[in-house]
Amino acid sequence: MTAAEDSGLPELETAAQPTALLETIPFISLGGAVLSLFLFGWIAESVSHDRTARFDLSVRMRIHEYASPGLTKAMITISFLGGYGLAIAAILAFVLFLLFRWRRATLWLVVTILGATVLDLSLKYAFHRARPTPFFVDLPSTYSFPSGHALYSFCFYGVLAGLLMGRTRSKRARILIWLSAAVLVSAIGLSRIYLGVHYPSDVIAGYLTAALWVSTLLALDRLRTVSKSRKGPGATP
Fold this sequence. Notes:
Layout: H1 3-7, H2 20-48, H3 53-64, H4 69-80, H5 84-99, H6 103-127, H7 148-165, H8 171-195, H9 200-231
Helix pairs in contact: 2-9, 4-8, 5-6, 6-7, 6-9, 7-8, 7-9
């Protein structure tokens, strides 16, 4: 008996049956990708011309007003979950997915993380935006735009939540998974602003970059699924 069978979880992954909703998902995802690209381009152009300075300073100072020793410790912990903590969580997820024989889910995570890495590094070096002066921690050695913590957390925790929701029968559990991922991703972005290592526009750009990447992956995956479903079970993959 495999670990998946022993836990009551599905062992083998099967393609979804063709439905009207399934066939519209690629177009919705592509629409989300285009919108994210448009908004990212607008923010990137504004950052390049220093038009976000007033917004960034205003938000930074407003959040800093709530600073306290206890909150600072909490924000450092939350920020860890978007950095080294995320790397540890990703490794554990890969191991568990392979143990449960969720090969497609494992591939999803690998492609998502690799793509996020390429986007993070290429955009940081393309814009060369200097970091703001940190409030509570040391100055990171990398560039500021976009926020890698925001990008990686959105990609990893968002995709992880989607994969788990697709394999969970309980509606309450699905809602809890989704809410937990949304709160965690939002808190990680907020922690980077609170600690002073990112401008608010960096965090927003990180989320938009992640949304663009995940939406594109989702669209391509659903197009493949719909095409394979139309060919029938006897079609050659």
